[in-house]
Amino acid sequence: MLLALHGISKSFGGLRVLDGIDLAVEAGAVHALIGPNGSGKTTLLNCVSGILAADAGRILLRDARIDGLRPHRRTALGLGRTFQNIRLFAGMSVLDTVLVGRHCRTSTGLIRAWTRAPFRSLREERESRERARGLLALVGLAARADEPAEELPLADQRRLEIARALAGEPALLLLDEPAAGMNATEKQGMNRLIRDIVAGGCTVVLVEHDIGLVMDVSSRVTVLNFGQAIAEGTPAEVQRDPLVIEAYLGQEA
Fold first, then answer.
1. pLDDT 10s digits, 178-193
2. Is the N or C terminus of the chain more exposed, i.e. has fewer CB atoms within 10 Å?
3. Each residue of 119-165: pLDDT tens digit?
4. 248: DSSP letter
């Protein structure tokens, strides 16, 4: 099991947002988290990535506990993520934005930059740029590498965030509403991109409100409601679950 959550709980004041969540994500899967707004999906991603500390429970990545680690340590161990609200760096080019995501896989640092051999620095920079350009090709932005990142259309900014997350070479990628704000054609492209990411050896945990995309691309689906997991199964199984229809899918009718 690549990712295992045991009894994850989180409260804000008197409001319990997550209530004893158990979750198991197999390597090579696209495991979706769905549910109504406020059901705890993004809070759960924040606990897994270390942005928030869970009040209770254990988080294991490759059978090693990570719940006590800071976010950058979790990244170094193979965890990447994107955000529901796009977080790009102003003033950076598209290529440089992806290169920022390489920091956990390079030896760059103030002391090391002064002491390491120049040839090593040049080789590492060249390899990072090659890797970054390859990722831009993967997400369809190779031709825009030198453009300012903040000037890209919304759909391209979301793909750029994915490329930046992939630059850290994660084993597990957390995607928080990657298709938000996209039109139908752009969502089809996101569907293909997620499949390509998994085909490249990266497991995906997907939070997404577009049920058509979720049901088409996911291998497993977990449904949250009021901070609890009310169902889990294949997309077909979840779509037939009466609790899921009542709590969430029925809202689409």
1. 999 999 999 999 999 9
2. C
3. 556 777 888 899 999 999 999 999 999 999 999 999 999 999 999 99
4. T
